[in-house]
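We include this case.
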Amino acid sequence: MGSFLRSIYLLTRLTCKETLRSKTYGFVVLFSLVSTSSAYLFLNFTFQEQEKFFKDISFASITFFCFVLVTLLGATQIHDDFENCSIYTLVMNPMSPMGYLLGRFLGIVFLSGLALFLMGILFYLNLIVQNIRFTMLDLPLDASLHSLLPHLIKKTFLDNISILKAFVATFFQGLILSSVALFLSVFFTSVHAIVATVFFFMVGHLMDFLIQTAYQYHAFLGNLFRGLLIGIPNLENFNISDAIVLGQNISGTYIVYLFLYTTVSVAIFLTLAHQKILSRMTNLVG
């Protein structure tokens, strides 16, 4: 058990090192940070309108770049390891195929989580800048910094604590997409796996719309679509940012539901990927 966990840890570190050396990760993270931080520069509304618009743009940007990141990382990992035969060296050592898969997965999760954390910090820094700007306009000229701080803390953090739930939901969605991208990279080339992951992402968010549209034409067509899409997680479940921006309450129970939904989905896709890796290696030995 100890050697199994150690092998996962070592491959997670290796995945992080390999990814950090590449220019792709740095470019995507840098571009996402610039995009998130510059969202409010082009807004010229009242404070309430500007804050809402900024949150909408920022969450859309954060969700998109997290998707891009996990897709580029996950869809290339396993296929590249098969191409350069490094997977055989790794698995022939004490590491098992599942340990290899978990190591790659956790490496992607750590790097995508790091990027999400940086975007979250920048998001709150932008909120602080906006709150200072609008608060200073309302305060008298002789107001002190001491009188500004309580209002600033309330507007930036206490009034926006529910936003953390949106970041958690985005992270959970990233976990599912990472497992999907790894699963697809076992079957396809890197380019094809990226395209398939993009398709999966779009269908996952449009699933409810597609099923409802099919039902409007005919019940049989609706049932057919529902059956065909049963193997694709409904990613729209994780799109809670709009509700939070509009002031709706997202219960902790729903976050627990998303956690369980994510856990089951990730377990299914990693198990399927594990079986395919075993099959490919068995065929090679045979």
Notes: The chain has a mean pLDDT of 80. Residues 2-285 form one domain. The CA atoms of residues 47 and 133 lie 9 Å apart. The longest helix spans residues 97-138.
